Automatic annotation (TrEMBL):
GO terms for molecular function: beta-phosphoglucomutase activity. This is Beta-phosphoglucomutase. It comes from the Bacteria. Keywords: Carbohydrate metabolism, Isomerase, Magnesium, Metal-binding, Phosphoprotein. The gene is pgmB. InterPro entries: B-phosphoglucomutase_hydrolase, Beta-PGM, Beta-PGM-like, HAD-like_sf, HAD-SF_hydro_IA, HAD_sf, PGP-like_dom2. It holds the Pfam family Hydrolase. It is an enzyme of class 5 (isomerase). Belongs to the HAD-like hydrolase superfamily. CbbY/CbbZ/Gph/YieH family. It catalyses: beta-D-glucose 1-phosphate = beta-D-glucose 6-phosphate. It comes from Caproiciproducens galactitolivorans. Its EC number is 5.4.2.6. The lineage of its organism: Bacteria, Bacillati, Bacillota, Clostridia, Eubacteriales. Its cofactor is Mg(2+). The keyword 4Fe-4S does not apply.
Length: 217
């Protein structure tokens, strides 16, 4: 029986992927990397800021010190935060807010489980925050997905047993994290055929999602 649903943020509730891409591309250009592509960006989905930086630096001939890498990640975050200033409710993905409202009516508790340290600001800017009971985010964790830490913290904040939680995810790392947390998962978009997930759909607007069946499982 599902009592809590934990939503990933980027790519599930909001479309911030494009902003991450633009910020990383700007940093890449600063470093003289001109061939950073959207395919590279797809590999950054759901993984930590420092692991995402590694994807950029794979395209560089230079080797950098740990301190330089920390500075680069911080610079990318400044670029990203600048872009977030223009974020509005228009960034909410189709049927995401409606799904949360529907689940709340069914007495399901709602959490966000995102490794982004910017998750609270994104929820605030898009107006989603009042619909969410608890937020587990990059500010709460030491280990990023595929480690289950962020989902276990979200479940704990909800006061729910992990076995009674469902994770909604669009990244491979996130589906692996849900499995490691012993939670059920609904895989969306690029992961819609991920065999580790229990349920699959194109997006939250997919009419094939049967919430009553999922909740009863
Ligand atoms: P930040 P999620 C993840 O969010 C993003 O998918 C990933 O691309 C990003 O590197 C990570 O957050 C860290 O974000 O730099 O804002 O702290 O998918 O877990 O909601
Ligand atoms: Mg995501």
């Amino acid at each position: 029986m599902i009592k809590g649903v934990i939503f990933d943020l980027d790519g599930v509730l909001v479309s911030t992927d494009k902003l991450h891409y633009l910020a990383w591309k700007r940093l890449a250009q600063d470093l003289g990397i001109t061939d950073f592509t959207e395919q590279d960006n797809a590999r950054q989905r759901g993984v930590s800021r420092m692991a995402s930086l590694q994807v950029v630096l794979e395209k560089s001939n230079h080797s950098y010190t740990d301190q330089e890498k920390i500075d680069f990640a911080e610079r990318k975050n400044q670029y990203y935060v600048e872009l977030l200033e223009s974020l509005t409710e228009k960034a909410i993905l189709p049927n995401a807010a409606e799904t949360i409202v529907l689940l709340r009516k069914k007495n399901i508790q709602i959490a966000v489980g995102s490794v982004s340290k910017n998750a609270p600001a994104i929820l605030q800017r898009t107006g989603l925050l009042p619909l969410i009971d608890k937020v587990g985010c990059g500010l709460d964790i030491i280990r990023s997905k595929p480690d289950p830490e962020v989902f276990l913290i979200a479940a704990k904040k909800l006061g729910q047993n992990p076995k009674n939680c469902l994770v909604v995810e669009d990244s491979e790392a996130g589906i692996q994290a849900a499995k490691a947390a012993e939670m059920k998962s609904l895989a969306l978009g690029p992961e819609k055929e991920n065999p580790l997930a229990d349920y699959h759909a194109v997006s939250l607007a997919d009419p094939s999602i049967n919430w009553d069946m999922i909740i009863a499982s």
